[in-house]
Amino acid sequence: MIIIRGVRHGIIDIPSCAIPEGHTAVIGPNGSGKSTLLRIIAGLEEPVRGCITIGEQSPGESAVGWVHEVPGQNSLFTRVRDEITSPLRFRHLSCDEITSRAAEVAAQTGISSLMDRELATLSGGEQVLVALATAMISKPDILVLDEWDSHLDAPSSAMLQNQLNTGGVRTILQCTQNMDLAASADTIVFLTKGRVKATGTPLDVFGKCIDTCYYPPSWRWREWNLRSKG
């Protein structure tokens, strides 16, 4: 579980919030602090005040995988295979284990055919998949995804979301503007102006957003379809 206590940092002002294990979607308007909150949880920024714990550890002590909203921004190498395997090579794992894990994560993210390509030749969506594979290869306890789906089409997002949900990562925390994707999460955290406006199950949170743009389009369509048949 992720526990937030008295965190203030930039626009973020969260007295208390508990995020359970499982898949959590962070939603809210542009500029509401979603990316800032994710960066703090990932250990990339230190809050000015307050603290965050992941289990019994600080973010810096936890095994966190991070995917930036701009694909390739944090890349260290030019070739896909070198980029994906870099976290394991830095830890001096054996060649056999690195090769095995690379093949596994490449298959899981659908990029086996890209392993010997140069990153600069990939599309934005393909670069996102490489970043995701790089974050997952170390088998982190928590995976933090900052609008990772913005460069993917809907079928690819849905397919990868299913892979993530069954991939063995205990906690997935993602920021998204896709409300249908958010609706597949276990927990929703709704931020506005740096504060938690609502948190709970998708049914709890989206049930309060029926007349807003945050209500999942697929839910609206399903309800309209049921009414039209009735």
Overall description:
- There is one protein chain.
- The chain is an alpha/beta fold and 230 residues long.
- The chain folds into two domains: 2-63 and 140-228, 3-Layer(aba) Sandwich (Rossmann fold), CATH 3.40.50; 78-139.
- Helix content is 35%, strand content 23%.
- It has eight helices and nine strands.
- The protein has helices at 34-41, 80-90, 95-109, 124-136, 154-165, 179-182, 202-206, 217-229; strands at residues 2-9, 12-19, 22-27, 49-54, 64-67, 142-146, 171-175, 187-192, 195-200.
- The strands form two sheets. It has a six-stranded mixed beta sheet with strand order 5-6-7-3-8-9, sandwiched between helices. Strands 2-1-4 form a three-stranded antiparallel beta sheet.
- Helix 3 crosses helix 4.
- The termini are far apart.
- The mean pLDDT is 87.
Give the helix/strand layout.
Elements: E1 2-9, E2 12-19, E3 22-27, H1 34-41, E4 49-54, E5 64-67, H2 80-90, H3 95-109, H4 124-136, E6 142-146, H5 154-165, E7 171-175, H6 179-182, E8 187-192, E9 195-200, H7 202-206, H8 217-229
Parallel strand pairs: 3-7, 3-8, 5-6, 6-7
Antiparallel strand pairs: 1-2, 1-4, 8-9
